[in-house]
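User: Fold this, then the next.

Assistant: Folding the first:
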Amino acid sequence: MTATLLRACRSLSGLRLAAIPGLLAVLLLVGQPAHAQQAQPLEFDNAYKAELASESAALRTRIQQWPAPLQDMNQQISAALRANDPAQAQRIAEALSQREPGNADIKNFLGKLQSINGQQAAAVKLFDEAITLAPDNRWFYVNKAGAQAELRDLPNALATAQALTARYPQWSIGLNLQAALLDGLDRIPEALKVYDQAVHATPPSAQILTNQGLLLRRLGRQADARASYEAALRVQPGYSRAQAELASLPR
C-alpha cells in the first residue's frame, strides 16, 4: 500500500525548507543568533538532503509494516491533506494515535501538524512522547528543538540538542544544531568549540562549514572565515551560500 503518511510528513517538514520552523531554519541554515538579520538565501546542502532522504526511506519501511486498518486511516489522512483540510487530517491522526498509542511516528506526525499550526507547546509535548517511544530517532530531537526555538525557549532547545549529541556525538547535523543554539544564546566560545567538532564529524557538510565561517567572520577572523568557506566548497563544489560569502570577503 502507498505510504501516504510518509508523503504527508514530507509535505509538512521533510525536504521542503518552507515547512521548517522559522527560527530554527535561521539557526540551522544561516548560523546566526536569533536576533541577527538573515543575509543569504536558505539552502540545505547535500549532506542534509541525504540525511533527510535516509530518514524518509526508513519511515517508508516502517509504514509498510503497519496493519491494513492503519493503512486505511493513513490513506484518509493523505486525502484530507490533499483537500487542504489539516484539521481533518489532525482528527484522523489523533484517532490513529489512540489506536496505536505506542507508535512514535504517529506522535511525531501529530507534533509536526501542531507545529505547522503554530501550536508549539503542544508540538513539544508530542515530540517528547515520540522521543520516549523511540529515543534513537535523531530527527525527533531536531523537531522538538525547532518547536522550542519557535517558542523562543532557546535554553531548552539547547538542552534538547545536547541530549541528541550525547546520544550521537559524531553526527554533524546534531552538532550543528547545538552550535547554532549556543551562538543564538551568545555563548560564543562554546559555539566555536562545537562547530569545530561538527566540521570533523560525519557527514561532511558544506552547510556546517559555512555556518562556522559566518561566526568567524562576525568575530573579525576573516582569514579563518575564508578557510571555512573554501573548505565548504571542497566538500560541495558550487554550494551557493559558501560561494556568496567567499565572494563578499574583502581582499
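Now the next one, as you asked:
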Amino acid sequence: MTATQTERTDEELRRLAERAGRELEEASAPEILRWAVDTFGERFCVTSSMEDAVVAHLASRVRPGVDVVFLDTGYHFPETIGTRDAVAAVMDVNVITLTPARTVAEQDAEHGPKLHDRDPDLCCALRKVQPLEAGLTGYQAWATGLRRDESPTRANTPVVGWDAKRRKVKVSPIARWTQDDVDAYVTEHGVLTNPLLMDGYASVGCAPCTRRVLEGEDARAGRWAGRTKTECGLHG
C-alpha cells in the first residue's frame, strides 16, 4: 500500500509523530520534509502565510508540485496577496487558497464592524482557524514555518509533533533555524519574500492587527500589539 493510500488511526499518527520528533530533531530541513513526503505522499501539504516562501521552496525541491495552502482572510495587506500570486507563478508548487465561510462584509453584518478590534479571538477563529480546519480535511500532515527563535511561545516547537486539535501530524522543518539561517537561505536561492519584511515588519499577518516592530522587540511583537494575545489559534 502506498503512502497516499495508507489510512492510519489517530493513535498511529500520534505515535508516528512523536517518534519522528525525537528521531529527526537533529535532521536538516530537507531531511525532515523528505520523511514527511515519503510517509504521507499526497496527504501532506505546506501551509504558508506568504510572509516568505522558504518552507514552500524547501518542500518543492523534495516534492515538485506540492500543495501550498494559503488562508485569504480578507484582511491581508496587498503585498501578501502579491507574494502569493508570485509564488504561484514562479515556483513548482500548487497554491490552494482557502477563504472563510463569510466575506468581511457578511461578518460585519452579523457581528458588527471591526470585530478584530472588539474580539480578535473570535475574528481569528472565523477567518483563520475554521477555514484551515476545513481545508486540511484531506491531509494527514501539514508543514509550517514555525521557528523556536520567533517568540517565547514557540520556543519548544518540535520539528515533528502531534496536532491533537486537528488530529494531524504537524511538521516544522525549520523549527531550529534562526533568522540568520532564513536570510541566508533566501539569499542563496533567491526565494520570494513579502516586501513588508523590508519595511519594518518582522511578522506579517492581517493588516488591522499588524504593526512594524521596534528595535529590540521579538519578531511577533507587531502582532496584536497592546494585547495579551500572541497567537491566532492556528498554532496554539
